[in-house]
From TrEMBL:
Keyword DNA-binding assigned: yes
InterPro entries assigned to the protein according to its UniProt record, in alphabetical order: DNA_mismatch_repair_MutS_C, DNA_mismatch_repair_MutS_core, DNA_mismatch_repair_MutS_sf, MutS, P-loop_NTPase
Keyword Isomerase among record annotations: no
Domain DNA mismatch repair proteins mutS family, residue spans: 244-432
UniProt KW keywords: ATP-binding, DNA-binding, Nucleotide-binding
Species of the source: Pseudobacter ginsenosidimutans
Protein name: MutS-like protein
GO BP: mismatch repair
GO MF entries: ATP binding; ATP-dependent DNA damage sensor activity; mismatched DNA binding
Length: 432
C-alpha cells in the first residue's frame, strides 16, 4: 500500500534537487549502482502506508546499520553487466546503436558470472541468514540461484579466463535464454544496495529508526526532531494524539516556523518509507496520506491569485478527508493571500472543521493570533509557538517550541534595523 501524496508536498519538502540545490534524496543516496539509485528515487516517490511493510523495511536497514555491513560487490561489475544487457536489448529492438564488441560480451559475461557467484556467497553469510525480516528477499534470491539453468555459472572456476567457446555458450545462456532471471536477480541486488546504503547514512548521521504504530492509535511522538540539512540544528519535541489532533503554531517572521514544519513533515514522510529520520526517537501511527502547503505558488496557468490557489488547495484536502482518509496535513500561513479580516474568519472556520476530523492530524501556522481565542473552545486543538527574545532593539530567536500563543510582531523593528526607511529618505534628498 502506497502513502497518498502529491507534487506540491514533494516540492515543499525539497525531496529532490532543483537548480543545483540538493534535496533530501541526495542525503540518503549513497548507492553504488545506477539501478539502486533509480529504485531509491522510486521509493521516495512512493512511501508506504502499511505498518508491517514499514517496520519490516526498517528492521532490515536497522540490522545492516547495526552490523556495519558493506555492499559486497564492485560497482565496476554492474557497469559492465548493465551495458551488456542494455545494449543487447536495444540491438534486439532494432536500435541504431552499435552491436556489442567481443570485448564487451566477454566483460558482460565475466561480470555476471562474478556477480552471481558473489551473491551466492552473500546469501549464505551469517548476518544474512540470521536476519528474519530479510527472509522474503533471501528466499527470492535463493530461488533464482537454485534454478538448474544457472548451475554452470555457479560452478565456473576459470576466474575470468574463459575460452571463446565458453563465452559464446554463457552469452546465449545469460542474455537470451535466462535473461529474465538475470534481470530479476539484479533487481534484488539493487534493493540490497539501497538497504545497505541507507543503513550507512543512518550510522554516519546518527539517524533514528521510527516505530510504526497501528493506524487507529493516531499517535505521533518525536523527540529531538531536526531538519537533516541543517549543520547546527536546534531539536524540538512534539506529541500529537487523540487529545491533540490539531496544532495551531504561531511566531514572528524568521522565528523558524517554516523550518520546523518542513522538519516535521520530512520526518513523517521519510518514516513512512521505513527509513531512518533526523531525530532521537520517533513513534507514529501510519497514515493514508500526507499533504503540505508550505510554498504554494500562484496558479498563473488558470489566472488564479494566490488566495484562490490556497482555496483550491484546501478544497483538495477537504475532498480527500471526505473520503474517510487519515491524513497528515500542514498549512504554513493559511490564507496569507487575502486581507486580515477574511484570513481570520477563513482560518478559524477551516481549523474548526479540521478539528472535527479525529482520524487525521493537522498543523496550521499563522500570524493571526486573534484566531486562537475561538479555536481554544476545541479541547483537541493544541497551541505552540516559536518565541522571539529582544536584545535591546535586536530580535533573537530560540527556535525552540513552547506551549501557548505569541503575539510577537517584529516586522517594523527588522525594517528599521536594516535602515530601509533611512535609505529611502536619503535617496529622496539626493534626488532633489
Amino acid at each position: 500500500m502506497i502513502l497518498q501524496t502529491d507534487d506540491q508536498t514533494i516540492d515543499d519538502l525539497r525531496l529532490f534537487s532543483k537548480r543545483d540545490t540538493p534535496g533530501i534524496f541526495d542525503i540518503y543516496n549513497t548507492t553504488h549502482t545506477r539501478g539502486a539509485e533509480e529504485l531509491l528515487r522510486e521509493m521516495f516517490r512512493s512511501p508506504l502506508s502499511n505498518r508491517e511493510e514499514i517496520n519490516r523495511r526498517s528492521a532490515i536497514i536497522g540490522h545492516f546499520c547495526k552490523t556495519g555491513m558493506k555492499f559486497p560487490f564492485e560497482s565496476a561489475l554492474f557497469d559492465m553487466a548493465e551495458k551488456y544487457l542494455t545494449d543487447s536489448a536495444d540491438a534486439g529492438k532494432g536500435s541504431t546503436q552499435s552491436m556489442l564488441s567481443e570485448k564487451e560480451i566477454l566483460n558482460g559475461v565475466t561480470s555476471l558470472i562474478s556477480l552471481i557467484q558473489q551473491t551466492k556467497q552473500f546469501l549464505h553469510s551469517e548476518d544474512v541468514r540470521n536476519l528474519q525480516a530479510f527472509a522474503p528477499e533471501r528466499e527470492a534470491i535463493g530461488k533464482l540461484l537454485d534454478d538448474p539453468a544457472l548451475e554452470p555459472v555457479l560452478s565456473e572456476k576459470s576466474q575470468g579466463k574463459i575460452s571463446y567457446a565458453a563465452v559464446t555458450a554463457f552469452d546465449v545462456l545469460l542474455r537470451v535464454r535466462e535473461r529474465s532471471k538475470i534481470e530479476k536477480l539484479l533487481s534484488q541486488i539493487y534493493l540490497l544496495d539501497v538497504y545497505i546504503s541507507v543503513a550507512m547514512v543512518a550510522a554516519k548521521r546518527n539517524f533514528v529508526f521510527p516505530v510504526a504504530l497501528d493506524n487507529k492509535k493516531g499517535e505521533l511522538k518525536i523527540d529531538g526532531l531536526y531538519h537533516p540539512e541543517l549543520k547546527n540544528p536546534i531539536p524540538n519535541d512534539i506529541v500529537m494524539d487523540q487529545s491533540r489532533t490539531l496544532v495551531f503554531l504561531t511566531g514572528a517572521n524568521m522565528a523558524g516556523k517554516s523550518t520546523f514544519l518542513r522538519s516535521l513533515a520530512t520526518a513523517v514522510y521519510i518514516a513512512h518509507m521505513g527509513f531512518p529520520v533526523a531525530a532521537k526517537r520517533m513513534e507514529f501511527s501510519v497514515m493514508d496520506g500526507i499533504y503540505t502547503t508550505i510554498n504554494l505558488p500562484d496558479n498563473l496557468g488558470i489566472g488564479a491569485s494566490h488566495f484562490y490557489a490556497e482555496v483550491l488547495r484546501v478544497k483538495k484536502v477537504a475532498t480527500a478527508l471526505s473520503q474517510g482518509k487519515s491524513l497528515f496535513i500542514i498549512f504554513d500561513e493559511l490564507f496569507r493571500g487575502t486581507n486580515v479580516k477574511d484570513a481570520h474568519e477563513a482560518s478559524v472556520a477551516i481549523a474548526l472543521a479540521f478539528a472535527g476530523r479525529m482520524n487525521s492530524r493537522f498543523i496550521i501556522s499563522s500570524h493571526i493570533v486573534e484566531a486562537a481565542g475561538k479555536l481554544a473552545t476545541k479541547p483537541n486543538i493544541d497551541f505552540l509557538f516559536l518565541p522571539t527574545r529582544m536584545n535591546g532593539h535586536v530580535p533573537e530567536y530560540t527556535y525552540t517550541l513552547e506551549h501557548g500563543v505569541t503575539n510577537d510582531r517584529h516586522g517594523m523593528i527588522i525594517i528599521r534595523n536594516e535602515g530601509i526607511l533611512e535609505t529611502l529618505k536619503n535617496g529622496r534628498k539626493r534626488a532633489v
